[in-house]
Write a structure and sequence with these properties.
By secondary structure, the protein is α/β, with parallel strands linked by helices. Helices cover 50% and strands 12% of the residues. Strands 1-5-4-2-3 form a five-stranded parallel sheet. The protein has two domains: 30 residues; 98 residues, Oxidized Rhodanese, domain 1, CATH 3.40.250.10. The chain contains seven helices and five strands, in the order ααβαβαβαβαβα. It starts with a helix and ends in a 10-residue tail after the last helix.
Length: 143
């Protein structure tokens, strides 16, 4: 332990890379908690849909949405969400679940919706990819 400062001084670049990687890892693991958005697993999504009548909003582009989406989900691409908030007001009380391809876009957009005063806003952790990995059904085409 007493030679650690000497090691750090001799390998400053490698040590700074280590610190950076650790910081990014921590952000990846705990970033969702810091955003205030609750990331939920596919099993929890099905529970919210069936018991609380929550609405799934798929934020992927229309082509990706048509290739496979959660049943009864509505498609609003992430870049159009701000102009389409009126569609979501009727689902405000029951809850809104955002999903995207991998879960990164949905968390950011859910945070924006929470800033608009929505309380029951969730993000599908891992996005449609995690839904597929859980072997849950997808439907194709437009609704």
């Amino acid at each position: 332990m007493e030679r650690l400062p000497e090691f750090v001084a001799n390998h400053l670049f490698l040590f700074s890379l280590l610190v950076s990687i650790l910081a990014l890892l921590m952000w990846n693991l705990f970033g969702d908690m810091l955003s205030g958005v609750k990331s939920i697993l596919p099993e929890e999504v099905t529970r919210l849909i069936n018991r609380e009548d929550a609405k799934v909003v798929d934020l992927r582009p229309q082509k990706e949405f048509e290739s496979g989406h959660i049943i009864d989900a509505i498609n609003i691409s992430a870049d159009q969400l701000a102009s389409q908030l009126e569609k979501l007001k009727k689902h405000k009380e029951n809850g809104i679940i955002f999903c995207c391809a991998t879960g990164s876009v949905s968390t950011k957009e859910a945070q924006k919706l929470m800033n608009e005063g929505y309380e029951k806003v969730y993000s599908l952790k891992g996005g449609i990819m995690s839904w597929r990995n859980a072997n849950l059904p997808l439907t194709k085409g437009l609704k």
